[in-house]
Amino acid sequence: MNSSPAAPGAPPGPLQLWQEENQTQGGLWNGSQELGWEELEKMLFLFVKEPVTISLTVMYLVSFVVGFVGNIMSLRVLTRKRRSRVSSLSATRSLLINLAVCDLMVVCVCMPITVGNLIYKAWVYGDFLCRTVPFIQAVSVSASVLSLTVISVNRYYSVVHNPLNARSFFTQKRILSTILVVWLLSSGICMPLIFMNKRDEIGVVEGLPLVFSICREIWPQERLKQAYNFLLFCALYCLPVLFNMVICFLTVRRLWSRSGQLKESTALNRSLPYLLFLRIRSRLKPISYIISFKGGFEK
């Protein structure tokens, strides 16, 4: 790439501004070009002092601390040994443990790399992390969504469909098999990200042999990328949201009907003592007449 002199009256380009700045700061352009390129690299890629970068970094830091501490405490509580009388909660606890593990993967693996790439725009983590970090993040989110769906099914079966047989149906073996299927399905859906995310190099300023690395998705065709994103949107957002809404509606409707039945039974239970009193009174009334008649006759 060759640089050409700017036309008279035209605004100066990035290369000309950089040359003038280096000449005014000590003639780095005519001296050591490596030092000038290093300063240019910091000027273009390092955003640690930007207000937006500072705000996002603080938010990521708070999210990291809260997410890490909260999920560790959740795992500690959920993995604690329980008494035998609450063993029926083992299915729900296993699903919640899986959900906490998914969140920890995002917090511990993806968030530090995201913050680092936010501060320094060039990708310095190599091709391996360029492929694995987006894959891990996508798999964790997918497993979280599918785990929430399984939890909804568990709650519906335990509350609405067959509460008495829920403990025997959701055995530990079935729950572990379901969790394995969730991870395999999530990995299969997100597998293309390993092959399409690549470390690439692009030029910065025309006329300078300065390139920097980025991590991005490179698809053979743009339509394939659009189709895959549409598949992810439907499989990991639309369908789970619709399914959970239906399950929630059925559960609320069943609980609402049970609430009405409970009110009727409560009203009936409250009226039973009065009905019993009337029945006893009707039985005792002839006896009272006999007693009063007998007393009057004896007089």
Describe this structure in words.
InterPro entries: GPCR_Rhodpsn (IPR000276), GPCR_Rhodpsn_7TM (IPR017452). Its main location: membrane. GO terms for molecular function: G protein-coupled receptor activity. The protein is mainly alpha-helical. Among the domains are: about 30 residues, no CATH class; about 170 residues, Up-down Bundle (Rhopdopsin 7-helix transmembrane proteins). It is about 75% helix and about 5% strand. It has a two-stranded antiparallel ribbon. A hairpin with a 7-residue loop joins strand 1 and strand 2. Helix 5 crosses helix 7 and helix 5 runs parallel beside helix 9. It is elongated. The N terminus is likely disordered.
Task: Summarize the entry for a quick read.
This protein has 299 residues and is mainly α.
